[in-house]
Specification:
By secondary structure, this protein is mostly helical. The protein starts with a helix and ends in an 8-residue tail after the last helix.
Length: 108
Amino acid sequence: MNNLVGQVASMPNVPSSNEERMFYERHLHDMAHSKQNMEERKMYASLIFQFTVLWCFGLFIILVGCGLEKLKLSDTVITAFIGSTTINVFVFFKLVTEYLFNKEKPHE
């Protein structure tokens, strides 16, 4: 008898009506969708970070090259390059992170 009670207690709650079954299946779908979104967001967040670091590292190399006079650029070009690159990095980072980490509405 105790074995039977243990088996019944370990069984998941099975929806009894069609409405409950549809709600249960929708819940399972939403859980799987959320898990996939979190995995994708982690992957893309890592890629965004790596891309941003590489972009800034490239800017640093060019600035060091100009400072050591291995690369000859005018002050106007360097200023424009630093400004445009910095703005592009921050705007790119902001847009992608807003898209990846938006406030989702549940499925209706």
